[in-house]
Amino acid sequence: MASPSATRVTRRRQRSVRVTTAVGLVVLAALVVAGAAFSGSWLVVTVAAGLGVLLGAAATRITHTELVASRVEAARDRATQAAAYNVLADERSAEHATHLADVQARIAEKEHALDELELALSLSQRRAATSTRKRNAEGRRAAGLQARVGEAEERAAAAQLRVVELEQEVLALRAELDTVTAAWHAAEHQRRHA
Fold first, then answer.
1. To the nearest whole percent, how much of the chain has pLDDT over 70?
2. pTM
3. From CA 84, how far away is CA 75, in angstroms rounded?
């Protein structure tokens, strides 16, 4: 026959020596009373009955003591488990707070970068508008100065290219900010429902 699995062996409590002793006392009392009943003597039956009651009372007391001890042990085990759970809950809470602070710092950093890029975009748009106005004014004033007009056009094109690049960076940062914000909301939602 195969041996029982390790989990069954560890989960089953061994019968206590106290319980075995109590069972032995009850069996002994039964044997004494049965033996006295076969003897036919009134005095022997009475003494055996008294002895049976005393042995039964002793067995009851021993069983009660074992029951109290097992309940105390179970209460200690539950208290240990509760303390371990509290430690685990504290660790998870600390991890969540750290993660939350990290996500909030990243969001603040992205928002700051986004603000800087929007400022740079605004400034570039003003420069582009200024360059365009200057180019138009110079074109009207000096039709003969083609070299300067060409230079102004190059600056305007470079500024417009920079504007397009900055707009693309702003869009990319906004998408990244949306992703980080969604992750933060999901983590916050998961924490609330955990």
1. 86
2. 0.40
3. 14
